[in-house]
C-alpha cells in the first residue's frame, strides 16, 4: 500500500448527483429495510473494529465483502487499488469473483471499468439487460447479457485511490438507497485502510527505529573494541568475535592485501576456516574475496556450490556467504565475509549493518597500523639511542685504553732514555744534572774501558725494551691509521699473485724472533705453492695479528700452532692456541671495531689492545674476497682462521 494514493483530478460536482440519478431508475430492494440496515451497520462496525484493532486489512476484507454480498444479493465483490497516477491497478481483496485471489501484481488500465471510474470519479452501474448507463464511457466494453456490474470509487483526501467492484448474475436492479449504502461502505473501507496504512507506517517507523538503535548499539560495541585494543592481532580477534555474535554465523574471516597488492591473504579467522589460516592466497578479481576487493562492492552468495571459489574450503564447509570490502578514506584495507553452514538468505538490513561495521573495522585497522608504525619508529629510535650510547661508551673506553696503551710505552721509553743518559754521563765523568765533566780525580784508561763495558752490558736490555716499546707504539699507531682508512674506505692494498705458504713462513719467523721465549709451531704441508691474489704485506699483517693474540691470551709455557690448509678452491690459514678461550656471548662481537671481550685478561705479553686488531684483520680478508671465523669456548682455547680463494693456472695446477 506504499503508493496506492496517487493523485487524480478533483470532482467538483461530488457524488450525490450521480447517486440520485442512478436511484431514479427505481431498482427494488432485495431485502427488508430494517434487516438490511442492521446488516449494513454490522458490516460497517466490523470494518471499524478491524481498523481500530490494527488488523491486517487484506485478511479481514474478504470476509466483510462476503457478508456484504449476502446482504445485498451480489455474487462477488473486489477492492481494486490504483497506482502510478491511475495507470495501473491491483486486486487488494476479493470474494466470489472469477479470480478471487488478492495480489500485489499490477496490471495496466486499458478499456476497463476501473479506468472509467478513475477518470469520471463517480459510481457506474452496467446492466446487462437494460444496457449501459448513458454516462458510461463509450470505450467501456458492455457486460455479458443478464450480467450486472456496480463500481463505487474510493476517495482519500479528494483523490480516487481505488474502486469497490460488485457483480451479479442474473442482472438485477439497485435502488438509490442501496447505492448510497455502497458509497458509505466504500468510505468506511477507505477510512479503515487509511488508518491501517498510518498504523503500519508508524509500526514500520518504530521497527526501523528499533533496528537503528540495535545497529547503533552494535556499532558502538565495535567502536569500543577498537578503543580497547591497539595491537592489530588482538584488535582483529576481538572484532571478529563481536561480528560473529552479532550476525549469529559460524565463521567470520578478514583477508588483507599482500605487500604487492595483487592478492589477498587470509589474515584473521574466527570459525572453522582457521584450519587453513596462513595457507590461503586469493588473487585480485578472483574468487569471492578477490571479486569483492576488485569491485569494492558487497557480494551475497546464497549457494556457494553455484560459483567458482579461490578457497575450496568455503565450498566444502559453508552454504551461504555475505562479504563486503574494508575501506578507509577510499583506500582498500581488506575484505570481511561472514559464512553460514546452513542455507541463509541475508537480508538487506544485514548487508547494511555489515557495511557499517566494515567501515569501523577498516578505520580501526588503519589506526592500529598507524599505532604500530609509530611504536615501531619509537622502538627504532630507542634502539638507535641505545646503539649510540653503546658506541659512545665504546669510544670512551677506547680513548681510555688508547691513552693508557700509548702512555705506557712512552713512559717506559722516557725512563729508559733517562737511565741511559745517567749511565753514560757517569761513565764520561760528567755531572748527571748539568752534563759538565767532573773536575775531581782522573780515571785510569783501563778502568774506564771496563766501566764502559759494564754500562753497555747493563744498557743492552734497556735498549731492547725500548725497541719493543717502539714497535708496540708503531703497531698501535698503525692500527689507528688503518681503522681511520677503513672508515673512510681508503685502506690501501696492492694485489699480486703470491705464494701464501711463503707469506705464512715469513710471518712465523718474524714472530719467533719477536717472542724468542715462546713456541710457534708451523705446518704448511708438503706440496706445490698455494697461489692467491693478495697483498702480501696486508695478509702478513692479518697472520701476525692472529699469532700475537694467541700468544697474548695463552700461558707462557704453552705453544701456538699455525697451519696452512687447502680446502677445495680455498686456502685456509689456521692459528690455534690453548689459552683462556672466548665466551659465547662475545663470539659474534669480537670482530667489531673497539670491542673488548669481558672476562679474564691477557695471560702474557703487553696489556690488552685497542679492540681494532680483529676488526682490521676481518676487513683486510674480506677486501681480498675471503672470510674469517673462530671456534672457541672458555677454558678450551681458541682457533682463528681465514680463507682466501686459490688461483688456478700458472704454477698451481
Describe the structure using short key phrases.
653 residues, six-stranded antiparallel β-sheet, disordered N terminus, alpha+beta
Number of helices: 14
Q: In percent, how helical is the residue content?
A: 40-55%
- Overall morphology: rod-shaped
Number of strands: 20
Q: Determine the mean pLDDT.
A: 76
pLDDT under 50 segments (min length 5)?
A: 1-32, 129-143, 430-443
Order of neighbouring strands in the sheet with most strands: 3-2-1-7-6-4-5
Q: Structural class from helices and strands?
A: alpha+beta
Distance between the termini: 102 Å
Strand content: 15-25%
The biggest sheet, with number of strands, parallel, antiparallel or mixed sense and barrel status, is: 7 strands, antiparallel
Q: Radius of gyration in whole Å, from Cα?
A: 55 Å
